[in-house]
Amino acid sequence: MQEKQNNKKKYLPKISIVIIGINVEKYIKDCLDSILNCNYPSSHLEIIYSDGGSKDKTLEIIKSYKQIKVINLKRDNPTPGNGRNEGAKQATGEFIQFMDADTILSADWFNLSLPYLKNSTQAIWGRRLERYPDKNIFHKIGNFEWAIMGDGSTGHQSGTARSFGGDVLMSKSAFHTSEGYDIDLVAGEDPDFSYRFRKAGFLIYRLNESMTLHDLNMNSFLQYWKRSMRSGHAYAEIAFRYMRSEEKLFLREFLRIFLGTIFIFGLFSISYFTPFSIPMMVLGLLIFLRPFARIFHLRKKTNSNWDFLLKYCSHLSFVIIPQFLGSIRFMITWFGYPKIKNSR
Q1: Which of 28, 68, 80, 109 is the most exposed place for a label (fewest CB within 10 A)?
Q2: 296 and 252 in one domain?
Q3: Does residue 30 sit in the same domain as residue 141?
């Protein structure tokens, strides 16, 4: 009896790690080394890299690793979902860990997370933080949001979650049962798949343990603007897709961005034609700056310094503008107008 228990404890399932990327020569070595050096037997790991058409030295670097399977995606504009699905098709492990090439795996992640993957719980994700959190204000904001967000329902606590992000460990059978990622989504593919994953009868677990470090690599306002536009596009596309569903996924976020922006700038515009111009402009300004009402709560929750929190709340106030334009961009295509070239 004791011998059987010891054998059971020694069972280590095979894990396939599917990495997606394009022109990631700056990151891929650190990503691969973090996997190969993690506290899990390399003989039980299978690494698959889905390449979106790299023109730099990415593939040359990968060739120096004999055990890496490489998939060259055949689409003109490959998406994250496309890369992950193709990698999953080649996976032979019982579980699949999805990663982006600009991330580093935490050494103990597999040992900490695998015990939770049982019964209906078939996907698990943990904490993702920025590798260089103090590089600039964009990285500080990114790291702050990774740290505080949980998934919107779990916060810092471990527990059942509504969705997972781009880095997630799940059973291969549940992945295929849920039909994988939508290959046409340029953003928002994670909450979309999470929703269908849950509807297939599986649970998602968010573990309050370190999973990956990420390099946002954002150095300019233009990058910030484009990323924000993509998030607005994703909110709109997912909201329209699930508008008639029970959960109405992302509908609240879309309406907050779309109607909120119209209302704010509507107040500013109308104020020029009424005798109540000053009160209307003040009202519009107060609504625009409403994220600042959260500053004391954020201070209490995170103990961040006031200087950063002022900048973060400024970001929350401003970001709805590119997000609004991103949602407009989606609706132009939704209502049948010629597609606008993807800005990725």
Answers
A1: 68
A2: yes
A3: yes
Q: Report yes or no on 341 lying in a domain.
A: no
Q: Are residues 135 and 205 in the same domain?
A: yes
What is the three-class DSSP state of 252? helix
Instruction: For residue 261, name the pLDDT band (cuts at 50, 70, 90).
Output: confident
Tokens 């020694």 appear where?
10
Task: Spell out the residues 6+ positions from residue 48 whose beta carbon is closer than 8 angstroms to its own.
Answer: 16, 17, 18, 19, 68, 69, 70, 71, 87, 90, 91
Identify whether residues 105 and 185 lie together within a single domain. yes
Torsion of CA 252, 254, 256, 257, to 10 degrees: 170
> What is the percentage of the chain residues whose pLDDT exceeds 70?
90
- Residue 213: which domain range? 2-219
Closest to 70 in 3D by CA, of 48, 92, 86: 48
Q: Enter the tokens of residue 128.
A: 């993702």
- Residue for token pair 């046409």: 184
Structural domains in the chain (count)? 2
Helix 277-288 to helix 251-270 angle, to the nearest 10 degrees? 150
CA 64, CA 111: separation in Å to the nearest integer?
Answer: 27
Q: What is the pLDDT of residues 71-83, one digit of tens each?
A: 999 888 889 999 9
In contact, 248 and 239? CB cutoff 8 Å: yes
DSSP one-letter code for 338: P
* Structure tokens given for 196: 């269908």
How many angstroms separate the most distant Cα atoms in the chain? 87
pTM over 0.70: yes
Fill in the DSSP letter of residue 303: -
Of all residues in the chain, the percent with pLDDT exceeding 90 is: 69
Distance from C-alpha of 302 to C-alpha of 274, rounded to nearest angstrom = 43
Q: How would DSSP label each residue in 142-208?
A: HHHHHHHHTTSSSTTS-EEES---SSEEEEHHHHHHTT---TT-SS-HHHHHHHHHHHTT-EEEEEE
For residues 261 and 148, membership in a common domain is answered with: no
pLDDT tens, residue by residue, 293-332:
999 989 988 889 999 999 999 999 999 999 999 999 999 8
Q: Which two tokens stand for residue 227?
A: 């990323």
